Amino acid sequence: MRFQSLRVLLMFSISNPCIEFVHAQSHTDVKKLHTDMFTDYKKEVLPTADQSKPLVIGVTFFMASFNSFNEVEETISLTAAVGMNWTDPALKWNPTLYGNLYGTIINPKDLWLPQLFLINRVDSMDPVGDDTMFFPTIIYTGEVIYSPGGILKAKCPTDISKFPFDSQTCTLQLMPWGFIQANLLLTSNFDKAQLDFFSQHSDWNLLEYSISIVNESLGYSVLNVKLTFEREPLYFAVMIILPTLLFSLLNPLVFVFTSRIWRTSVIIDDNFTVIRHIFNTCVSFDSCVFKSYVRSVNCHDRHHLYQRCNRNWFHNKCKLFLSQQ
């Protein structure tokens, strides 16, 4: 029951960041509450009554949209919010003394707020939601609800062994960088990401969205969000598989064409070049499938493979990888 009520409050704070929980229409009560709460408040101090014990923060992961998955760069991009709740003993009040005011919105610059970092992020090392101001909600019991969010772009290894009938699994690793478990401890409010605001992607289907907390041996508390997406294969089946099969059937005809119609064989070869270019833009040469293939061939075959790279139908990264083997 507590988690369900918390879920409502988290969703409320995300979708209504400027509404106050006021049961009496008195602006004076709100100003008086803010003045009384923050007269001696120090946002630099960790909000725990017993400083020898860690601050426990409950976390809820909200997925808003799956933006893209780049097989070549091996990155995933999604829009999400991280709802956090904790109890600050310095922010408790008696609602009857403030016109039955049970909750209020606070400027984030005036409050101690935790910062979660996506440690496998590829574009920056900034906290989640650092580029936008998200207003926290405070309940009269001292419970603080804070839900920063943004576009998260993380590293995700690619597995194309079943392309285009493949599925990709990515893990987002979020942690309060700089706070060890003795100071701050993360707990998960739910065992799955919440999809209340999720917009489905046309090319990928979301299969798994589990959440777990891992207490690292180095002393950090890490939130792992495991996401599994399944590709919609129709586009690639029409654009790659079907043309490749048709060209494979036409390929033997090159040997029976006379010199008068030599242009036909050239056209077929050009068509294969187009297919190779499409494959080059869809497949990462850092993937385990390509690496396993290169390591399995002998030196003689690898020499021919390197020559093919020089024909510009492979990515430049192909030649770089071969030179390192």
TrEMBL record:
<dbReference type="GO" id="GO:0004888">
    <property type="term" value="F:transmembrane signaling receptor activity"/>
</dbReference>
<feature type="signal peptide">
    <location>
        <begin position="1"/>
        <end position="24"/>
    </location>
</feature>
<keyword id="KW-0732">Signal</keyword>
<feature type="transmembrane region" description="Helical">
    <location>
        <begin position="234"/>
        <end position="257"/>
    </location>
</feature>
<dbReference type="GO" id="GO:0016020">
    <property type="term" value="C:membrane"/>
</dbReference>
<keyword id="KW-1133">Transmembrane helix</keyword>
<dbReference type="InterPro" id="IPR006201">
    <property type="entry name" value="Neur_channel"/>
</dbReference>
<dbReference type="InterPro" id="IPR006202">
    <property type="entry name" value="Neur_chan_lig-bd"/>
</dbReference>
<keyword id="KW-0812">Transmembrane</keyword>
<feature type="domain" description="Neurotransmitter-gated ion-channel ligand-binding">
    <location>
        <begin position="31"/>
        <end position="232"/>
    </location>
</feature>
<keyword id="KW-0472">Membrane</keyword>
<dbReference type="InterPro" id="IPR036734">
    <property type="entry name" value="Neur_chan_lig-bd_sf"/>
</dbReference>
<dbReference type="GO" id="GO:0005230">
    <property type="term" value="F:extracellular ligand-gated monoatomic ion channel activity"/>
</dbReference>
<protein>
    <recommendedName>
        <fullName>Neurotransmitter-gated ion-channel ligand-binding domain-containing protein</fullName>
    </recommendedName>
</protein>
<dbReference type="Pfam" id="PF02931">
    <property type="entry name" value="Neur_chan_LBD"/>
</dbReference>
